[in-house]
Amino acid sequence: MRSITASRSEPNLSNKKKSTRLVTAKRDLSQGKKAAEKIEKLEKIPVIIKEGGSDESDKDDSKDFLKSDLAIKFKYYDPLWFRIPSNMTSSHVRNEICSVTGFERAAFSFNKTIVLLENGKMRHINMAEDIPRLDFLPISGRTTCFSISSDFTLFAVATEEQNNSKIVVYTPEISMTEEKCVYGTQYLPTELCISQGAEIIACLTPLDERIFVQTFDVKDGINNCSGQILTEKNVKLWEMSFCPADEGVICALGGTMAYMLRASGGYVENFSTIQLTDVTCHEWSNDVNIMFGTKDGTLSVYRETILLEIVNIKNLSQEVLKDAAIFHVVCLRSTTRRFACQLASGIVLVFDSAAESGPIWSTSRAIILPDFVHHRSHCLSFDFGDETLLYDNGRCLMTVPIRFLTRINAINGDVVTVRHCSKVVCVKSNEHCIASLDASGFFIITSKNTKRVLCYSQIDDAFFFTILKKSQHLLIASKNCLEKRIITLDGLIPFEKFMKNDILFDIKNLIFSLDNKYLMFLTKNDHVYCLDISTGKTLWSVDYKLHFFTSIAFCNSTLLLMNQKFIVTRIKYGKDLSNVNMHASDIGFSITSELIEANEDYVFVSADCGELLCSLSSALDEPKVVKSMIRGQRITHLRAFNNELLIGYENGSVAFLKLKEAEEPENDVDLILCKFEGVVNLKSLLRDIDTERNLIRESTEQFVKMYTENKEKEMQEAKSAFEEAMRIYTERVKSIEHEFQESESIKHQTIASLKELYAEENRQQKEKYEKMIEDQIRKSFRQMEEKQEELKRVIAALELKLDMEKEKLEAAKEKHNEALQKLRESHREDAGLLEEEIWNLKATCVQLNEQRDRISDENEKNISELKISKQQIEHLRDTNVKQENAINKLSDAITLMKTKEVEVKKSQAKVQQKLVVREKQCEDALAQNHRLKRRMQDMEARIEQLADCVYEPRRLEHAVLRLLAMSQNVDIDERYRRPL
Predict the structure, then answer these.
(1) Are 570 and 61 in contact (CB under 8 A)?
(2) 424-658 shares the fold of 98-343
(3) Which of 198, 647, 699, 764 is most buried, by CB atoms within 10 Å?
(4) Does 77 have pLDDT greater than 80?
């Protein structure tokens, strides 16, 4: 969520400088008088112009030249020029460096105004004006961040001035220049946000492994809460936002952690933390849910720390995203009516939204950006009515009306401003515009009047260019050739190409003289050439070896060569003059010099730390540091043109420094070439549209007039017809009411008599059916009680038998256990005897070896006895198995008894079902009674029909007879005529 910055408008700057002169005039009156006296003396010094063929010494030439140059300077400049302001680092120029193109952050303000931040300066532009201008806001100090409330009533910026940080609040509806309130902060904020109700402002400052959060109450104008939150690691990039439903809840996103903060009681505390993966940005999707964008193309919706939903971006607009390879979410923006999401593949998705439910994903509209370049910061913003979207494609900041968008749009919106995405390698200017070129070959042409971008174009392999004098042509040098292009509304159009020159590949730096008659260039081996452009001949050349020059400049017939140690080598007419050290005491000795640029009055030197040194051309050894809001950015290009210095930076920013007061242009309208056929076609189209609009307006007026007359006539006719119909209906209603009153009296008498007859008959039928139903119910209850008693007797007998079988089974188990115990004891005794006999046999075998035969016989006898005992043991085992089978049979008998018990229960269930059937029959009888009541109602309806026949006696007599016959022949349902 980044913003935009631009350059200062000349009228505002001139007014500011005029007021500064009025304020400081009295203070510097004495200095002015002294300077005037010096001017009178210096006017008498003769101007010495040295020709190229003179044989005088270089020392005398340099002295004479400096004297004449110094005299010219004192004649031209104001005596207050060299006054050094006390509130800035001393410098020979009074202005500070201001940006021309580029933007870091941008957002819509009140109405159609857009505010931009670039290199510590705020700019604004009103797109609703006839001639929009990019003007600077009069904010003192360096601005680090800004924020605009959701209702566009507050505009807050964080600034730093003289090591004091503060937050300044403005009211865009009233004025963008008058301060509403100012808050001092302990640390310089890098992030700001304003609550949904525009009552609280929060700021965030990242520190070492922690962040400092501070809130301010706009209504009371006090410091509300503050606190330091510990973080897991040192994160520099942060985002912060307020919860729309609770102004005391703040979400701070840094790295892969989202910290939910609560500001209350004077303290800011972390009450929960969300651990995320590959998160890039966040936004509140509705009043209570927060959405995080990730690098894998998903949107994670959380409510506090609970994950509610994961939305896949590819599924939202499959027609556009099916071939996309990158779904990296780079920016999110949400309002009560719209939601926008920008992807790294160059696609912006716009959805309708609701404050309660959030984005409506089915309303996707896609904007495809043809020339998208991924940048470290991107912008998304909606205007006050959510009708216009502000977005960027990496280089261009554009606006597009949302109401004209279809489902898929491959368009470019209206350009607000443009920036470079790589380092600036060349900057040139003329009386009307400033042209800049970056390392990727991207050109930007900016107007000096309105500070808006006139056109931009991409030319690959371009590394140098110059604007031809008094024309709209650019001479561009690329790796392949030299070519001339025309500045038009559609970009830089090719005009003429030249052949390639091999010497261009060895050139390190080249410059033109102020009169464009001479070309001087420095080669990579420190060889300096001076060429005459008209003849193409080399006027002079000097070979410097191992001097390691970095840049060259031309000042008052003197060529200046800069090395890395701030040592300037001077060459005049091909002769080497003395060297000058341009190092300033305000910067360190470890810093190296890079570029040098000069005009008739000043010499500028850039350092690798981003500082710019300035010295008078007459005093090169006294440089001063120029004040700049652009800090920490290395300068890659310097260009002095007339009364201004153009500066290009490594981050793509282009800035300028005014050296003198310039006259305000008579016509501040931007003019640029475009195709004649296009203008003619646009004029004819506008004329046709005006004609068509007039015809539509005329035909619409005629149609509305005719439609009104026809409708008035139809309404009058309908009104008269309605009144006549109402009169006729009123007379008919009166006659019907009279007849109805006479028939009502007769009807009431007839109905009363018929009701008495029906009531008597109904009473008799009711008594009959109630008696039948009661008898049947008594009989069924008696049978049911008898079956239940019989069932109880059967269950008792079965339980008694089951108990007896259980007792028998237990007795058999006891007998079996006793027999088994006896067998085990006998077996144990036999085993003991057998063991004793074996020991005896062994002893006898040892002692009586001679009686082997007799002992063997006895052994065989014992073996036979053992076989017999084994057979007895197997017999006992068979007996045990038979007893276990008997036990199993008893278990089967028990199972059978249980089965019988289940069958008895089933019979009991059948009896209950019969009881249900009887109850259903009772309900049918009641339903029959209900049908009789309905028949009674039918009879009453027939009696009421007799009222229609009261005036016809014959019909009335027949109707009464039919009614009596129907009442005497009442049919009874066959189900109730049968005996129950």
Answers:
(1) no
(2) yes
(3) 647
(4) no
CA distance 23 to 539: 51
Backbone phi, psi, residue 489, to 5°: -65, -30
Structure tokens at 69: 């140059």
CA gap 908, 914 in Å, rounded: 10
Three-state secondary structure call for residue 563: coil
Phi/psi at 675 (nearest 5 deg)? Answer: -70, 135
Residue scoring higher pLDDT (630 or 427): 427
One of 2.40.290.10, 2.130.10.10, 3.30.1330.50, 3.40.50.1000 is the CATH number of 98-343, namely 2.130.10.10
SS3 51: coil
- CA distances (Å), 348 to each of 96, 313, 355, 364, in order? 38, 11, 21, 10
Helix residue ranges per DSSP H, 387-523: none
Residue 715 — φ and ψ, nearest 5°?
-65, -40
482-488 sheet: strands from edge to edge: 462-467, 473-478, 482-488, 491-498
What DSSP string runs through 248-264? TEEEEEETTEEEEEEEE
pLDDT at residue number 977: 41
Question: Model confidence over 107-118: pLDDT tens digits?
Answer: 999 888 999 998
Contact (CB, 8 A) for 237 and 204 = no
For 901, what's the count of Cα atoms within 13 Å in the CB-facing half-sphere?
14
Strand order in the sheet with 113-118: 105-108, 113-118, 121-126, 135-136
How far is Cα 654 from Cα 663, in angstroms, rounded to an integer? 22
For residues 156 and 167, what is the distance between their CA atoms, to the nearest angstrom? 7
User: For residue 855, which phi and psi values (nearest 5 degrees)?
Assistant: -65, -35
Fold category of 424-658 in CATH: Methylamine Dehydrogenase; Chain H (2.130.10)
The Cα–Cα gap between 646 and 252 comes to 39
In sequence order, the 6+-apart residues with CB closer than 8 A to the CB of 89 are 586, 624, 625, 626, 627
**Mean pLDDT, residues 291-300 taken together:** 91
Amino acid at 838: I
Give residue 884's region: left, alpha or beta (phi > 0; psi -120 to 50). alpha
| Span 308-364, pLDDT tens digits | 999 988 777 766 766 666 778 999 999 989 999 999 888 899 999 987 888 998 888
